Structure to design on (468 residues):
């Protein structure tokens, strides 16, 4: 009898050990540069009718697939200005064995228009439907390739701050200047062995080439990834984070090897910026420490965001913004999702927010360009006297409820809804904040003043929900 009990205990112990979560990871990448010559390729991010004349360097899609043995998460970064949720949903229909997919755009301003706002005129979409379909198919293949490449792995996470590599071109100046780097190594690999791959996350608009450039490029993102890939001889995936505010590479002072100032709008500056960012990533990797990234807790909430922006509504009517809109009834989670084309009445757009807990790493994934104030808990208080909604409640900061040893944000995750602006910093009407003579840039590319609260409060609720 005693022998039977001992055997049962041993079997039970063995089963528990077998069930312990084990991280596995795989990487894959593909060139998603558009084909030039057959039809115009409209470039995104600045003015309309900016057509591409050349591919200067490839724009990429990079996939990182992770599993804890029970759940599988696919993270994909694309060197695009944005990628809408309906396209992500198309991809999900074709994926098998993936519990959650995030497609995060780097928000590249020197690639093709994948949103619609930068066509031949303000009333014409710049989106090539065939190209968007190609992106969908590429992501499907990439996730499959990365999944097949998964091997048991360990992780190290580090961070470094680089305020000198960001300009905040909107008052008040609040920078999210932390770069997060994750190194994945094969389980039981020698310390000197090259990594399985490196993931970096940084908070800045890739727009160094400015508005006159007509050559397709990944901007500083490509140069930073190349810098790290050469250094470590492994795949490198770059993800964007907090880019609202506006976090930009423009006007960041950089010099060449001769000590001469580098100008915005030049590939020389884009390359120098990328290498400088790569060096910051090296600091983060050097300071990295072992991190446990299992088990996974993946929480996702589909919501309706009210669209109050008149230009967005007009663009929808004109076919420039080609995505569904729904009847808005003061609920972010309506029982009935009623699609509508009548934008003269209150409407909303469907999107999603994710909270990903990978062991000791907490990740906030938001569907647009969020202001640093909303991530770091630095919304202006008291507000400036010129603010349109000075009595608006302060939105819950994304990072405040995160209790993990490490934290990271993924911006433009599964959607691009424009800017998420603290409501008490909304400033579209006179008198303008900080005694400025005109309004600052931002509100024109936001769904509305209530968007930030919807996004931030949804994320707060996700973090407070029972563990799945």
């Amino acid at each position: 009898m005693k022998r039977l009990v001992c055997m049962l205990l041993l079997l039970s112990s063995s089963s528990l050990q077998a069930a312990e979560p084990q991280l596995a990871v795989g990487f894959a990448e593909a060139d998603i540069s558009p084909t030039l010559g057959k039809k115009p390729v409209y470039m995104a991010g600045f003015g309309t009718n900016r057509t591409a004349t050349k591919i200067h360097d490839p724009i990429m899609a990079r996939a990182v697939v992770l599993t804890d043995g029970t759940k599988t998460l696919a993270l994909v970064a694309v060197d695009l200005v944005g990628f809408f949720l309906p396209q992500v949903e198309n991809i999900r229909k074709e994926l098998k064995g993936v519990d959650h997919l995030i497609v995060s755009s780097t928000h590249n301003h020197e690639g093709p228009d994948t949103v619609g706002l930068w066509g031949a005129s303000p009333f014409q979409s710049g989106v090539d439907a065939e190209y968007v379909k190609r992106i969908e198919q590429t992501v499907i293949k990439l996730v499959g390739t990365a999944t097949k490449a998964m091997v048991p792995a360990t992780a190290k996470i580090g961070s470094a701050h680089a305020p000198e590599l960001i300009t905040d071109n909107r008052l008040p100046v609040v920078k999210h200047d932390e770069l997060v780097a994750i190194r994945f190594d094969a389980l039981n690999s020698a310390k000197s062995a090259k990594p399985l791959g490196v993931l970096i996350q940084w908070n800045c608009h890739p727009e160094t080439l400015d508005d006159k450039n007509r050559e397709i490029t990944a901007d500083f993102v490509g140069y930073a990834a190349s810098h790290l890939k050469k250094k470590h001889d492994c795949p490198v995936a770059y993800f964007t984070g907090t880019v609202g505010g506006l976090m930009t590479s423009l006007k960041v002072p950089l010099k060449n090897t001769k000590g001469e100032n580098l100008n915005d709008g030049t590939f020389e500056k884009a390359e120098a910026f990328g290498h400088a960012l790569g060096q910051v990533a090296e600091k983060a990797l050097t300071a990295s420490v072992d991190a446990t990234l299992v088990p996974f807790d993946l929480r996702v909430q589909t919501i309706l965001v009210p669209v109050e922006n008149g230009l967005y509504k007009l663009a929808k009517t004109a076919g420039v913004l080609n995505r569904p809109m729904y009847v808005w009834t003061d609920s972010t989670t309506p029982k009935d999702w009623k699609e509508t084309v009548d934008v003269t009445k209150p409407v909303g757009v469907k999107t999603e927010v994710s909270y990903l807990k990978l062991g000791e790493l907490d990740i906030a994934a938001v569907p647009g360009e969020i202001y640093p104030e909303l991530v770091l808990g630095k919304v202006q208080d008291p507000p400036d006297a010129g603010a349109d909604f000075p009595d608006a409640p302060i939105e819950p900061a994304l990072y405040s409820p995160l209790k993990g040893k490490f934290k990271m944000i993924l911006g433009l995750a599964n959607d691009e809804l424009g800017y998420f602006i603290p409501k008490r910093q909304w400033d579209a009407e006179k008198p303008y904040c900080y005694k400025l003579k005109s309004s600052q840039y931002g509100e024109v590319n936001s769904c509305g003043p209530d968007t930030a609260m919807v996004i931030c409060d949804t994320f707060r609720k996700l973090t407070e929900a029972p563990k799945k």
Notes: Residues 1-18 have pLDDT under 50 and may be disordered.
